[in-house]
Amino acid sequence: MLNEVIKHMKPSDNELYIDMTFGAGGHSRKILDSADCKLITLDRDPVAYEKAKELSKEYPNRVTPLLGRFSELPSLLKNIGIKQSSIDGILFDFGCSSMQLDNGERGFAVSKNGYLDMRMDAGRDPNQITAREVLATANEHELYKIFKIYGEEKKAAKVAQTIIQARYMIKNIDTTHELVDVVDSCCPDEFRLDKLQRPQSNATKIFQALRIFVNNELNELNYGMVLSKYYLKLNGRLVTICFHSLEDTIVKRHIAGNIVNETANPVPLRYLSPMLVQDQETINQFLDSPWKAITKHVEVPSDKEVETNPRSRSARLRAAIKIK
Predict the structure, then answer these.
(1) Could you tell me which of 256, 261, 248, 265 has the C-alpha nearest to residue 314?
(2) Alpha carbon of 305 to those of 24, 98, 280, 302: distances in Å?
(3) DSSP summary character for residue 233
(4) H or E segment at 87?
(5) In what helix (H) or strand (E) does residue 115 lie, and over which residues does it extend?
(6) What is the DSSP string of 39-80?
(7) What is the pLDDT of residues 91-112, one digit of tens each?
(8) Would you tell me the crossing angle of helices 156-169 and 176-186 to the nearest 10 degrees?
(9) pLDDT in tens, 68-82
(10) Between 20 and 30 A from 270 (CA), which of 76, 239, 290, 308?
């Protein structure tokens, strides 16, 4: 969704932008080509960081590559002298990058056999747990919760039970294909299709759930949204691309101001009884949001883009301006 990002971001000369999810650098390059602006790139993956360093050589004195998670951003920006309320635009492209999916050894892809790692940081933090370790140590109820909440998997209980049985009776699950086989054994007669009506692996949602859990993605996403509020200038622009409803819900509630203690509210609406509250200040507080949505509804990729890049089929773009 390159063109849509540029349309909402409106890069201008001499402004400063942050690409919070550099990946392979497609969006960053487009922003740099659109205006004579400066760009800070952030990614938690060391492979992406090396690509960002290559990009900074192509565009001298315009790109500042940073390596870290969203939660590490404040200290990284402090080190390079960037203060709050000084950024003109922030871009998030959540989820897993194609670069990570295409490398079977990282363990992200259902279709490629490899060790079940799934750490986006690629071992940068030696204490970070891998997907294999989650499957080898979590109990049945914990696995059920991971698959049900993060994967929205309808067979979560059955899959969790089968993994525990395999662990005790056969062996730990170490590779992606072993996990796919276990999930397939739980739904032998099931034939799933993706949004393009193409055959989809039964294990897709299980892989999604493990990846989100291992990388603490939803908490990081929530923190990233909070940071954008503090680092954007007044009238600064925020553009987000999400790939499933769990991500999109957090973004949507932040933009709508449905926030409790800097966290997206788990319920869709903040409850306020007009019978009990007559105080205008309390009512205003409930309706308060620092964002004004630019996109009336969520934007989706064009049919042409989905045809050329099927992975974009689930993309959901939202954009907002910081108004206070």
Answers:
(1) 248
(2) 18, 15, 47, 5
(3) E
(4) strand 87-93
(5) none
(6) EEEEES-HHHHHHHHHHHHHSTTTEEEEES-GGGHHHHHHHT
(7) 999 877 877 777 888 877 888 8
(8) 120
(9) 999 999 999 999 999
(10) 239
